[in-house]
Amino acid sequence: MSNIDKPKVVTTRWWWVRHAPVRGDGGNIYGQKDIECDTSDTEVFEAVAKILPRNAVWYASNLKRTHLTAEAIWAAGFPKPANMMKDAAFAEQHLGEWQGMNRAAFLASRPVGSSWFADVNEPAPGGESYMDLYTRVCRAIVRISVVEAGKDVIAVGHGGVIKAAVGLALGGQPDRGLSFDIDNVSVTRLDHIASLGVSSWRLPMVNQHPWIADPRHAAMHQPAGPEVKLA
């Protein structure tokens, strides 16, 4: 087959960044509560700003902790884009009545070995199941991969959202996506490869910490605030 006859291959590169750590939650589950994050760790944001691609399109959820994280990356040296799309499809799971509950006590009540708040099909009372989140996130990724085909897409999101994206890239396996750690401000890159009748994914990197090599920063990750345990 000549090069002229070969089907065109289009690669869309997704660069996921989890929001900065939340420290004002009192050790409670926050889910879709619109709570702020801590962007004071300059070395972390400088390192992330260096590895993200220029000329990318930017997306974020509708929650301000993703907006604050994006602004910290721009303040650390990344050229501020003309605009950033804010998409509610990329919001964290709505955890309903569990939001506001003590996180440590709640997780201690779940089965040993649980990798999320509940089974993927169990909805939070008054909220969503993880499969609800997974479905809306995947639909948005498919839609944006068409609209932004061939581009670099930087998406500032949440732990559950990025796990959903990983599950999609693994062939539509949400449970496997949940087995990955996604730390605050970590970078995950997932490449969507499309051709005539073909749609596949590559996972060049998951949960990367570009600030580790910086001698000014001794921490190996960006932990959230300590859990507050009940007395």
Strand order of the largest sheet: 3-2-4-1-5-6
Q: Biggest sheet, in brief?
A: 6 strands, mixed
Low-confidence stretches: none
Shape: globular
- Radius of gyration (Å): 18 Å
Estimated share of beta-strand residues: 15-25%
Percent range of helical residues: 25-40%
What average pLDDT do the residues reach? 92
Oligomer: single chain
Order of helices and strands: EHEHEHHEHHEE
SS content category: alpha/beta
Counted by DSSP, the helix tally is 6
Beta-strand segment tally: 6
Give the termini separation: 71 Å
What is this entry, summarized?
With 231 residues, the chain is an alpha/beta fold.
Question: Could you describe the 3D structure shown?
Answer:
With 231 residues, the protein is α/β, with parallel strands linked by helices. The protein contains six helices and six strands. It has helices at residues 42-51, 64-75, 103-108, 130-147, 159-169, 174-178; strands at residues 10-18, 57-60, 84-86, 152-157, 187-195, 198-208. Strands 3-2-4-1-5-6 form a six-stranded mixed sheet. β5 (187-195) and β6 form a beta hairpin. α4 packs across α5. The protein is globular, with a radius of gyration of 18 Å.
Pick out its properties:
single chain, 231 residues, alpha/beta, six-stranded mixed beta sheet
Describe the secondary-structure layout.
Elements: E1 10-18, H1 42-51, E2 57-60, H2 64-75, E3 84-86, H3 103-108, H4 130-147, E4 152-157, H5 159-169, H6 174-178, E5 187-195, E6 198-208
Parallel strand pairs: 1-4, 2-3, 2-4
Antiparallel strand pairs: 1-5, 5-6
Helix pairs in contact: 1-2, 4-5
